[in-house]
Design brief:
Blueprint (H helix, E strand, L loop, with lengths): L1 H6 L2 H25 L8 H19 L1 H24 L18 H21 L5 H20 L9 H13 L4 H15 L1
Amino acid sequence: QRDHEWAGNAPLAKWFCASFGAWTLATLVAALLRGHVDWPLLDSPARFAVAIPVFLYVRRAGHLGVRSVGYCAAAGLVLTLAHQVLASHAHDWSAERMSNYFADPLAFGYICLSLAFMSLASALSDTTQPKWALVFKLLAAAAGLYMSVQTASRSGWLALPLVLLCMAFFKYRALNLKSAAIATGLTLGLLG
């Protein structure tokens, strides 16, 4: 029932797509108005634009799309951990912080954390998956959390209370002042 309601909500999907693409477009227009396009500045907003086809696929495919994203997130984490273990340049940015050639420790940390939560959410929400898939996704989530911690960056972890608050809202469809206060306290604690 929920999948059907979500897939049928075309105005909401249009707003998501517009908001995903707006940041990239605004950054590009600002650069063109300045007369100089600094391509590295488009890296971060372009990730949202690239997410549009993924979002549309998941929306159209429903439960199967969500399941495939869960497997992809888990596989990405396992392959990234294997790369970190096997590659000689796993600490390109500094000897103490985990990263890779493509991402600095901040980006590497929040990407690993995001994929870990996607893998964990997929593992906990899919009740029809085989046991091996559940174990694979949970191990992948643990690998993602480990790699995120090894970056020694808090950028992704600052969003954790908000993510937990949103998960609670979507699970229980209700929030109270106590939940919001706990999330705020956790965020302020992570800042300190």
